[in-house]
Amino acid sequence: MHPNPIFRKEERARHIALAQSRAFGMLTINADPAPLLAHIPFQISDDGTSLDAHLVRSNPIARKLRHRPCAAILAVQGPDAYISPDWYKVEDQVPTWNYAAVHLHGRVELLPDEALRTVLEHLSDSMEKRLLPKPIWKMDKVDDTAMAKMMRQIVPIAMQVDDIDGTWK
């Protein structure tokens, strides 16, 4: 995040709207010897206080969550672009990069396996609605045996969002 306060004045609602529109981010937790990262689709609540997602069961973050919930940050990137100093029409300038980014801070935890289908249905329904007028794909289109096999490979997670900050440069 850019530290200059001039780029950090946007309202919480705009941060939530960016997270909802992107619905994809980089989940990070602390670990030894280095932080763990996972790029995940997610669905954030309308008030921005919680989100649901899933991880591959073998993901190192999922393995860490088996022991206990963890502090986490989910970084969501919006649009970005290189800015040439020629565009400023002012002498003695340097290039920069403009971007929008939101960080969701909170605690992430594994949900019970029984929650997985609901998490997946909500996420796919949300994404499928973006493709209207295409008919919405539903999970019941997949054979039960095949679906059960695929679902054994992933785990549902939830994050309680305690804080949201963003940069709009």
What do you see in this structure?
The protein has helices at 12-22, 60-65, 116-129, 144-151; strands at 24-29, 36-44, 50-56, 70-83, 96-110, 154-168. It has four helices and six strands, in the order H-E-E-E-H-E-E-H-H-E. 23% of the residues lie in helices and 39% in strands. The chain is globular. The model has no long low-confidence stretch (mean pLDDT 95). The chain has a six-stranded antiparallel barrel. With 169 residues, the chain is α+β, with helices and mostly antiparallel strands.
Keywords summarizing the entry:
six-stranded antiparallel beta barrel, single chain, 4 helices, 23% helix, alpha+beta, 169 residues
Give the helix/strand layout.
Blueprint lengths: L11 H11 L1 E6 L6 E9 L5 E7 L3 H6 L4 E14 L12 E15 L5 H14 L14 H8 L2 E15 L1
Antiparallel strand pairs: 1-2, 1-4, 2-3, 3-6, 4-5, 5-6
Strand content: 35-45%
Report strand order across the widest sheet.
1-2-3-6-5-4
Major sheet description: 6 strands, antiparallel, barrel
- Quaternary structure: single chain
Question: Which structural class do the helices and strands define?
Answer: alpha+beta
Number of strands: 6
Gyration radius (Cα, Å) is 19 Å
Uncertain parts = none
How far apart, in Å, are the first and last alpha carbons? 10 Å
Residue share in helices? 10-25%
- Run of helices and strands: HEEEHEEHHE
What is the 3D form? globular
Q: Given the structure, what is the number of helices?
A: 4
Average the pLDDT over all residues and give the rounded result.
Answer: 95
